[in-house]
Each structure stands twice: as structure tokens, then as C-alpha cells.
Amino acid sequence: MASGGLGRCRLALGLALLLDGAGMGALLTGIFARLRVRGQDFGDLLIYSGAVLVFLSLLGWVLWYTGNLELAPDELGRDYAAKGGTLARLARKISRRWSRRQPGPLALGPVRGSQGPPPRETV
User: Fold this and answer.
1) Which of 5, 45, 47, 49 could, after both became Cys, cross-link 30 (CB 3.0–4.6 A)?
2) Distance, CA of 59 to CA of 12 (rounded, Å)
3) What b/e string do you get for 90-103 counting C-beta neighbours within 10 Å, with b at 16 or more?
């Protein structure tokens, strides 16, 4: 699959660049400009908010990078088919148990006084 020079996840790249630009703009404005409104200095606010925006841009960069990773389908199948460890068995067991459950309230366990789940039918 051929893609352009920016990769496949252009939205994540745009988010990262937008947050980087806004964060660096706020950071540099907070450092070098003297912003006083009614005698109060707002430089610290811009410095901290700029640093937070630059940190949040990392989310966009990580999404863009992971969205551009390419794996061959046979390699992906080989990696996941080989998982036979204890953790994989536990995950399958929990997944099967949760998928058998009937939709209802968000309770994780049986309600006190209930008989528990109905018996399973074998086919």
C-alpha cells in the first residue's frame, strides 16, 4: 500500500503539529513577553500552559507513529498464534466468561442472594 509523504494518520499528525505550535507559542510568549493585566503578571500561566500543550502533543506523535507501523499479515498471525502462555490462557478464559454473560447492570459479580449464573447448555 503506497502512501503519501506524511503517512496514513494525517489527523494525528495535524493534532501533534497544532499542539506543538500552540504550546511553543505560549511558552515563548510567556518567557519573553511582559504580560501584565491590571498589575498581575500572566507569564507564568503561559509558560505552564505551553509546557502542558507540548506534553499533550506527545499523544498525537505517538498515535501518528503507531498508525504508520507496518506489519505483514503472516507475521501478525504468527506472533499472535504463538501465544500459549499462562497470561494468554487467563485472558482467553476471562474473555469467554465475559462474552457469555448476558447484558445487564454494570455489576461485576452476582448479586447477594442470587443463585448465580444459569447452567450451561452443551451442544
Assistant:
1) 47
2) 8
3) eeeeeeeeeeeeee
Residues with Cβ within 8 Å of 16's Cβ and at least 6 positions away in sequence, in order, are: 57, 58, 59, 60, 61, 63, 64
Model confidence at 47, pLDDT cuts 50, 70, 90, reads very high
Distance of alpha carbon 32 from alpha carbon 47, whole angstroms: 10
pLDDT, one tens digit per residue, over 5-38 is 777 788 889 999 999 999 999 999 999 988 888 8
42, 35 contact by CB (below 8 A): yes
How many angstroms from the chain centroid is the CA of residue 90? Answer: 24
